[in-house]
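Figure S4 source data
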Amino acid sequence: MNKAGDGCVAWYHALTMTDVAARAGVSKATLYRRWTAKADVVADAVATLNPMTAPRYPGTSLRDDLLALMVQVGNCEGQPETVTATMEMARSHPDLYRTLSERSSTFVRAELSRLAGQAAAAGHAPLSVVELDVLSETVIALLAHEGGPAGGSIPRERLIRLVDHVLLVVLTGTRAAQ
């Protein structure tokens, strides 16, 4: 880890809910009504810098919409420095890692659920809750694997392969036309 990353890790370790309450000008009790843990406060702060919002789906095909989602989720370019530093902190703080991972997983599952509904409306077999959960977990694992330990952006060609050979197969039973 670089010196900036080391400073961020030390900062997170030293941060207390008392510090946050004092900086916000509220009591600790008020703070705890909204957040139960430091990881939640930091994750919410990061979400204001890098909100997880649905991409602009082109609406031209299920494949194009899936690709738009994967490009957004797999792209780390242009993130504020604070977001990148927080991801570095998460590597050495399991509570923060768990919180950020859960939020990312929830976002991906919700978007995949919407797209699975689109596939079902087009006549494909609907996914069960278990199938949707497994698909979401698989997508997150593949994105984490492709992003590598540094959490880099995933090349578009790899995302296209994920969409064409995994997501479309699961959602429609067929691969994209080659």
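Figure S5 source data
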Amino acid sequence: MSTRLDLAQSFPEAYKAIMELEMKIQKSDLTPIHKELIKVRVSQINGCAFCLNMHTQEALKIGETAQRLFLLNAWKETQLFTAEEKAILQLAEEVTLIHQGGVADSTYTQAVAFFGESYTAQLIMAVITINTWNRIAISTAKDI
């Protein structure tokens, strides 16, 4: 598949707005590991090879282990992730798959219990942002 249009050139105002959102996420209180776990898991769900390639490399650079990345798609079946990380991953999956019933009250309540409202808001925005990047990369046939 050939690369399609470049949104940064074709619609620079909108692309700039998304980049500004990304910069807000980068400057948020989210830990680097939390950000990369979200980006990798959401990209797995969405099947975005470009983002998976980028964010697995980034995760490794900041100290994430290859074993945890290999098992991220089976996070519910392993003890390699903390209870807090599992709450993040559950929230990320439910926001990404919003059409399957939304975010459960129990998922939201658990996230707020672990992290408080401000951090939970940042988690949700991080999930929304990587979903946006996945959709851009896939719809424009961004290649690795």
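The chain has a mean pLDDT of 96. Helices lie at 7-10, 12-26, 32-46, 49-61, 66-70, 83-96, 105-139.
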